[in-house]
Specification:
Length: 298
Amino acid sequence: MPWPVTEGHFAQLPNGIRLHYASCGEAGRPLLLFLHGFPEFWWAWSHTLAHFGSSHYAVAPDLRGFHRSSMPLAVEDYRPQRIAQDIHQLVAHLGYDRVTLVAHDWGGAIAWNLAIAGAPWLARLIILNSPHPYCFARALAEDPAQQAASAYMNWLRAPGAAQALAKDDFALLDRLLVGMNPTQSDWYDAPTRARYHACWAMGLTGGVNYYRATPLHPPTEAEPGPRALQLDPQAFRAQVPVRVIWGERDQALLPVLLDDLERFVPDLRVERMAEASHWLVHEQPEAVHALITRFLTE
């Protein structure tokens, strides 16, 4: 009999943040931790939790600022180092000292930081459509196509973005989830839409603050962003094995972000999904699950 996915679990962390999480499987089995991005929440991984709960303790938190987790007001509380601390403390709260991370979008940005820092509790990393920070900074500074694709980031950084996203019953967010790959948007059915709307109704400012807290955004005259950074490529080498699954129809994160990735990840494998977009885990869950399983058994 399959393990049920259960939500409503909370971890009060030493840093004062309270994280909500869902889980599936038996505690004590190898920990597989799933990190979502914007504008999602733990439920983005609901089918994946159910799939891996038979072999792992599969856990998906709401990151700080999202859904039922703490929503600090200050922009600086959304810097990657602080969210990375949340993840470390959550792993300890769950009683583990080793974890495999599976991370998408902003969750991936946090996970890349942990892999680069060489967190001793991180065994390996599986990334879904989330760029390595050096590759992203380089493309934002130099690549016109990626600058255009990321223009939305500057819009989200501006005052009033959360209110605009909530307007007309979250119409912009609905279009974001279905407009990138319309032929594979059946996953966003009425019950799923209701779950997402209920999440967004709890607040969008936290999610928007991720964009406001990062220097990685398309440069402008007022805010040069990555062009003002002096980055040492040697400081951005991942210290753990990394496997990347990339939907090539992603209109926000272009395939150019994979260029030269092996320079920063000594133990790397990249799997490209030509027909999938940014929302690959929803569009092609069986294929994504099969790739994750293969990576876990290498």
